[in-house]
Amino acid sequence: MPRLFAYRPLHHPGRVHYVYLGADRSSFHGGFRTADGDRVTLDFTSHGIRLSHPLVWSS
To answer: How far apart are the C-alpha atoms of 43 and 5, rounded to whole Å?
Structure first.
């Protein structure tokens, strides 16, 4: 994770970046799985932002 904040394009005072790093490993161990056609939605209600995208596996 420290390398992420060393990435120069993220160095803009006053700018907010949403960086999706993925689910914690415990999600997998808790029985959560993703499959082709699933939709991933991130809802940042406090900021009025909602990101949604379908997962599509490619061969």
So the answer is: 23
